[in-house]
Amino acid sequence: MTRFKKAERAFQKKLYKQALKNLELVLKKNEKHGESVALKGAVMGRTAETDDQKQEALDLCKRGVQLDLSCKNSWLHLARMYKAAQRYEDAIKSFKMALRLAKMQPEKNELRRELTHMLAQTRNWQELADTRRQLQLDNREMIIHWIGYR
User: Fold this and answer.
1) What DSSP character marks residue 1?
2) Residues whose CB is less than 8 angstroms from the CB of residue 25 and which lie 6 or more positions away in sequence, other chains included
3) With 70 as the cut, is the pLDDT of residue 1 above it?
4) What residues contact 128, with CB distance under 8 A and at least 6 apart?
5) Does the pLDDT of residue 81 top 90, yes or no?
């Protein structure tokens, strides 16, 4: 298993120190690996205590996206950082970009669900209805999506 995969698993298990150590090793070898930079920003964002640390984590996520514009995970980390910073318009843009880059249907459904929360937060009702409708069409067997569409 590669160092990056170990870092991803540690991040998912909320073992942030271990994830950060593995990411540092990955970035020593290749400092321009966009997904690693974005994941490091996400880890730092979860452990940040001050506003300066949160801003540094957000900047890392932005840099990770700039290094690899075609990486869904980089856009997803950036979107979640914006969401945590309550910058919902920017989060919506990043979630939409991650949705465009997602290839498998379960990933798209998860991203659409997160996007619907952001659209409701910004009171963008028409786009929310369209997104919920797309969820309904993709998952006809899930009754929960029937309720959200008018």
Assistant:
1) -
2) 3
3) no
4) 116, 119, 120
5) yes
Q: How many Å apart are CA 88 and CA 138, to the nearest integer?
A: 25
The Cα 120–Cα 39 span in angstroms is 27
| Structural element, H or E, at residue 103 | none
Radius of gyration of the chain (CA): 16
Record the pTM. 0.86
Tokens read off for 13: 């298990």
- Angstrom distance (rounded) from CA 28 to CA 40: 13
Instruction: Report helix, strand or coil for 100.
Output: helix
Q: Give the integer Cα–Cα distance in Å for 136 and 3.
A: 38
Q: What is the pLDDT of residues 4-17, one digit of tens each?
A: 899 989 988 999 99
Rounded CA-CA distance 48/147 in Å is: 38
pLDDT in tens, 125-138: 998 888 888 888 87
Q: Which residues contact 48 (CB under 8 A, 6 or more apart)?
A: 54, 56, 57
Measure the CA–CA gap between 134 and 10, rounded to whole angstroms: 33
Beta strands in 11-132 (DSSP E): none
